[in-house]
Amino acid sequence: MPYRVLSALLRSNSVLPTHNVIYGGHRNCSSTTNNDGASDANAQPVAIPPIKRLAILTCMDARINPFKQLGLQEGDAHIIRNAGGMARDAIRSLIISQRLLGTREIAVYHHTGCGMVTFKSPGLRQLVKDSDPEAFAHQENAKLIDEINFLEFDDLEESVKSDVKFLKESPLLMKGTKVTGWIHYVETGKATRIV
C-alpha cells in the first residue's frame, strides 16, 4: 500500500520533554538558518533529542531531502546519511541516537535510482588504486582500500529488507525498537513501506 510519506507515522509518536533546547543546532544562539540556508531570527527552540523520537537512515544522494519529502520540521528526527543509507555503515550513529538522544524508532529509507546498484566493490577498489598507483604500490595503502566493503547491492527491495533485519537482530540497539523499511520513488516523490 503506497504511503504519501511518513507523516502519519511521525504524527503518532509522543513528544520528548524540551528541557534542553537549542536554536538551529547551536546552544544559546539568537538566530538560526532555515532549511534553505537563510537566517531565521524568529526561530523557535528545538529539542536536543528529536521530538518524534525517530531516526531516519537514508542515502547521501543530493535528491533526497528528508525534511521536505517527509513533512518534517527541524528537530523532529535524526537524519542519518551514508552512501545507500546502509545500516551496517550507520550503526555507530544509531547507537548514539538511541542511547544518548532517546530515539525509539528507526525508518530505513532507500530510494530508486540509487548509485549503489551501479558498481561492484572490486571495481571501485581498483579505480581508487589506479588514481594513484605510486601510493597504492605500498602494501599498507593497498590494504586500506582492499579491506573496505562498499556495501553495494543489486536489488533495492532486498537491500531495505536486509537492513531492517540487521537492525532488528542487532544487540547494539535497544530492545523493542520499531524498525520499518521504505522505498522512496524519486520519480514521483512518494514512498512505500515494504517492511
From TrEMBL:
Binding site for Zn(2+): C59, D61, H111, C114
CDD domains: beta_CA_cladeD
Cofactor remark from the record: Binds 1 zinc ion per subunit.
Keyword Metal-binding: yes
Pfam family, one: Pro_CA
Gene3D superfamilies from the UniProt entry: Carbonic anhydrase (3.40.1050.10)
Coiled coil: none
The protein's Enzyme Commission number: 4.2.1.1
GO molecular function per UniProt: carbonate dehydratase activity; zinc ion binding
InterPro entries associated with the record: Carbonic_anhydrase (IPR001765), Carbonic_anhydrase_sf (IPR036874)
Homology family: Belongs to the beta-class carbonic anhydrase family.
Task performed by this protein: Reversible hydration of carbon dioxide.
The name this protein goes by in its record: Carbonic anhydrase
